[in-house]
Recover the amino acids of this structure.
């Protein structure tokens, strides 16, 4: 399956959505000032070696930034600090706890779809794919899910734009963009900071209380660390499922024969989700910084260089996947890296998979017809490092 990416407005940088393989598995981008890693095995090697490839890229992208901006940000931490913080919250996403959320996820899905009853169409992102996961993660954290319109605006301002940061560009415009991003992130962090402060005074049975009461090496997390950590959980905890669900429905629509198979045999639903994660990987890249000089795929890369590990391109590497542009819900094995790999493997992956499985099954149950609208085509997000839908209008009759 080759997605009509140009027609739908997917970012031009995502050439892999257009059925093209990279000329080299590793290549330096002169314009952006960092290395792109497209190969599957090369990506695995990098993600599996946090000592050589640090997750702390802030010093390169934001060399003058206050350390408080990234304090508690799990994505930017290396061992041993990463392990300590991840351990704090990992038990909130155990298989047992995640499985216990199934009734709530199912009820929410029906409730959200009930609001579309009597219509012959729905807009999947607005009606289901966005509100469902944001309500679930907000309830886990203990912040009002009724504030989800604000969350969407904040996350949209931060992620859903076509800004492209360059390490080679030292212009005033680039500095302005960086400052704008910092200010946008600060709005959501300040919101969560106020909730964390309230939990210190009045604890509840929620994840935010767990964070403010937790200790690392005998010390409580600072309010800033709690807010940054909660910000990551709230942001990544909903946008991943939003993109996953929309992308899976889009893959099925583009492959009617496979869609019919999945409708007839629901045991194929998990495979369809995994295959959509491979073909349309939501977070297309993760960034690493070399801590020493390295050689990758014949390229010598100096110490302190930034690598953009293009997960989405790696998931279409023809050296690893046969027919990489074909959507096959029965693909087995399917060792995609849509949720990353190694110590930074997505903490919320089990929850995202569960939400996707429940929601997709209910959609198929409730709508015998579910197809894109030729007069109102899907629209991709504008961000170069995201592959997800801003809107997905569907006809249900």
């Amino acid at each position: 399956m080759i997605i009509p990416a140009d027609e739908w407005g997917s970012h031009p940088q995502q050439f892999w959505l257009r059925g093209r393989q990279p000329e080299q598995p590793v290549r330096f981008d002169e314009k952006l000032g960092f290395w792109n890693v497209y190969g599957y095995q090369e990506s695995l090697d990098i993600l599996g070696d946090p000592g050589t490839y640090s997750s702390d890229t802030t010093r390169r992208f934001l060399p003058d930034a206050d350390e408080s901006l990234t304090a508690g940000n799990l994505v930017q931490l290396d061992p041993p600090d990463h392990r300590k913080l991840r351990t704090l919250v990992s038990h909130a996403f155990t298989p047992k706890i995640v499985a216990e959320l199934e009734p709530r996820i199912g009820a929410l899905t029906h409730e959200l779809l009930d609001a579309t009853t009597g219509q012959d169409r729905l807009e999947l992102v607005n009606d289901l794919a966005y509100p469902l996961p944001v309500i679930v993660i907000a309830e886990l954290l203990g912040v009002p899910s009724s504030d989800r319109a604000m969350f969407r605006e904040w996350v949209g301002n931060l992620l859903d734009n076509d800004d492209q940061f360059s390490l080679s560009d030292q212009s005033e415009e680039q500095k302005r963009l960086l400052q704008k991003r910092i200010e946008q992130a600060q709005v959501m962090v300040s919101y969560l900071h106020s909730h964390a402060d309230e939990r210190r005074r009045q604890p509840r049975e929620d994840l935010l209380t767990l964070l403010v009461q937790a200790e690392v090496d005998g010390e409580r997390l600072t309010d800033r660390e709690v807010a940054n950590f909660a910000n990551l959980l709230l942001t990544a905890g909903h946008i991943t499922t939003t993109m996953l669900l929309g992308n899976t429905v889009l893959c099925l629509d583009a492959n009617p024969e496979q869609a019919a198979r999945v409708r007839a045999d629901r045991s194929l639903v998990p495979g369809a989700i995994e295959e959509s994660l491979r073909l349309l990987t939501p977070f297309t890249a993760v960034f690493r910084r070399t801590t020493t000089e390295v050689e990758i795929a014949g390229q010598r890369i100096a110490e302190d260089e930034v690598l953009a590990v293009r997960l989405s391109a790696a998931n279409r590497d023809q050296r690893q996947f046969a027919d990489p542009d074909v959507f096959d819900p029965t693909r087995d094995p399917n060792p995609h890296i849509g949720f990353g790999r190694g110590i930074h493997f997505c903490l919320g992956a089990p929850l995202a998979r569960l939400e996707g499985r429940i929601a997709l099954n209910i959609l198929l149950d409730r709508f015998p017809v579910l197809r894109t609208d030729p007069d109102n085509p899907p629209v991709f997000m504008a961000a170069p490092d995201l592959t997800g839908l801003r809107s997905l209008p569907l006809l249900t009759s």
